[in-house]
Amino acid sequence: MTKGVEGDWVADVADRVAEAAERRQIIGPIVCASGVSPSGPIHLGNLRELMVPHLVADELRRRGLPARHLLSWDDYDRLRKIPIEVPPDFAKHIGRPLTNVPDPTGEYENWAEHFKVPFRVALQRLGVEVEEVSQTDAYRSGAYRVQILTAMQHRTAIYDILTQFRTKNVGADDDDQDETEDTGPYRATYSPYRPYCRACGRDLTHVTAYDDATTELTYHCDCGYHDVLRLDAVDHGKLVWKVDWPMRWAFEDVVFEAGGVDHSSPGSSFTVGEQIVGKVFGGDSPEYIQYSFVGTDGAAKMSGSRGSALTPSEALGIVEPSALRSLYCREPRKSFTVAFDEKICNLYEDWDRLVARVTQGTGDRRERAVYARSVATASAPLPQTPRVVSFRSLASVVDITGGDPVQLLRIVGELLDDPPPSSLDEVRPRLDCAAAWVNGYVPADERTQVRTEPDLAALPSLYPRELEAINLLLADLETDWDLNGLTNLVYGVPKRQLGLPVEVKGRDPELQAEQRAFFTLLYHLLVGRETGPRLPTLLLSLGPDRIRSLLDPPRT
RNA sequence: GCGCCGGUAGCUCAAUUGGCAGAGCAUUUGACUCUUAAUCAACAGGUUCCGGGUUCAAGUCCCGGCCGGCGCACCA
C-alpha cells in the first residue's frame, strides 16, 4: 500500500473510511459522495461540500485504495424561488424540476445547467475529479424505481421515523410518547414520493391514495388536474429529500459523505436518514462529518439565492488554485472566510509563508499536510506561479501601470532577485489574479488614476519656483532612466533649488518641506491627488512621453 | 427546546496525538534622502471567559456555568 499524507483531519477521516469499507466488505472503489442543488449560483460554501469528500477520496487514492467521488446534482428538485434579476414571469416555473426550467439568459439548455457549467470549470481547475450523476436522469430513467416502491411500502414506518424527531406539533397534540400510535390525519395519507403533475409539470401535487397491490398512486394538483400513476411503470416524481438522501446511500453504497450543519442537527436530514437507510432500504449510513459555512469577509454564511454569493470561479479569478485548496484543508467544523477585500493580501502572505516553511523543511506535520494536499492531488500536480512576487506588490504595480505589459515586466524584474524574468508568464497566474483583483474589487477611490489629460486649470497658474522645479525634473528625466536614477532625480530637484549639493543626506527641515511640496505638486499634476505611489516607481511606469504630456503639454 | 462552532496580546487569529502560548497588524524604539497598506531591525505586550475535575503535565480531555455566532424542529 502506498503511503498517504499524515498529520491532519483528512488522514484521520480516511482511516475511518477505510475501516468502514473493510467492515462493510465493500468490493471495488470506495464511494465518497457530494450533493449539490444547482438552483442558484454555487458558492464557496457549496464548494466545501465538494472539497471535504474530495480530500478524503484523494487521501484514499494516495494510499493506493481505489475511490470514486460522486457528485449528485439535485437538479430534479423543484425551482423554489426566483432571484430578483430574473424576469417575473419565471414565477410560472416555480414547482418544476430545475432541468425543466429554461435558462433565463438563454445561454444553456436549462436553469440547472446555467449554474453547473462554471462550477465544473472551477472544480477542474482545483484538481477535483468527480463523477457526475444527474438526479433528473436517474429518476426519469427509472433507476430508482425499486427504491421508490420500497419507500412506498414502508411509508408508514417512514412517517413514524420522521415523527419521532418532530418537536413541533402538527397533527394531534399528544405528548411525545406514543408516536407509533399516531393516528393523525397526516399518517394515513403520508407519501414519501411526490409526483410532478403530468399536466402542468409542477409539484403542487397532493397524494390522496396509494394501492400497494397495484402500485397505483392517486394525486390531484393545485392546477386542477387529477391523475393516477402506476409507480411500477411510470417515472414522474421523486422521493422527498429526507428519504431521497438515505436511498442514495444504499443505492450507491456510499461510504463517506459530508454535510453542512443544517443537515446535521437532530431531526434534520442526516439523523433521520441514518434510521431510514437501515429500516427501509437495508443499507448502511456513511461515515459522516459535518462542516461549517464558508463566508466572504465577515459574513458567516452566504445564501445561494442571493446575488451577493461569491462562487469558486470568482474566487479563482483572484486566488491561485493551490492557495484556495489550502483554505479548504482547514478543520471542516470551523468556519472561515475567503477574502475578496484587501485582506486577500494576508491570505497570500499566509500561503507564501506556508510554502516557504515547508519547502525549507521547517514546517510542522500539519503544515506539511496542508501543503501536500494543496499543491497536488494523487493524480497530478496543480499549476503554480513559477516565480513568487508578493501579491501586495503585484497589485500595486498593476494599479499604477494600468496593466501595461512593458512596464510590468520591467518593474517585476526589479522586484525579483537574480535572473530577470524573460516573460510575464513567469509570474502568472498570480499576476492575472492581482490584475483581476485590482480591476474588480478595489474601490475606485482607493486606486491610482493617472490623469488622462493635463491639469490645464493648474498648469498656467504655477508659481515660478514650481515651474522651475518641473523644468529641472524634465531636463534630466531620461539621464538615468531607472529606479535609482529617478529616485536621485526627484529628491535632487529640491536640493538644487535650495543650492545644496545633490549628495547631501541628513534631515534639513527646510529641505524636507521643499521635497514634500514638490512631491505634492507632482501628485496633483499626475494623479490628481495629494499622495500616491512612490514617485520613482510611478514615473518609471508612466514613461517619459506620458510624463511630459502631463507636466509640459504643448502650448497652443 | 435540541445540536454544532467560538471565547487566547489593544485588533485579527495560530497552537499536531495533552509537552516551555505563537504570528500578523497596531503601539514603542532605532535605521532608510521617504509620501502610498511595496522597507529593515529591536523592545514590549498574557490569570488562554468563569468554576470544579483527571494528569508528572491542560489553551487542548471531563463536568457545570456565562457570553457570542450559526443551524434544526415532518422545507427541499
Total DSSP E strands = 12
Poorly predicted ranges (pLDDT <50, ≥5 residues)?
Answer: 169-181, 298-307
CATH fold topology of the domain at 9-146 and 242-298 and 301-306: Rossmann fold
Oligomer: single chain
Radius of gyration: 32 Å
Mean pLDDT: 84
CATH class of the domain at 9-146 and 242-298 and 301-306: Alpha Beta
What general outline do the C-alpha atoms trace?
A: elongated
The largest pleated sheet is described as:
5 strands, parallel
Structural class: alpha/beta
How many helix segments? 22
Superfamily (CATH H level) name of the domain at 9-146 and 242-298 and 301-306? HUPs
Strand content: 5-15%
CATH architecture level-2 label of the domain at 9-146 and 242-298 and 301-306: 3-Layer(aba) Sandwich
CA-CA gap between termini: 81 Å
Largest sheet: spatial strand order: 3-2-1-9-10
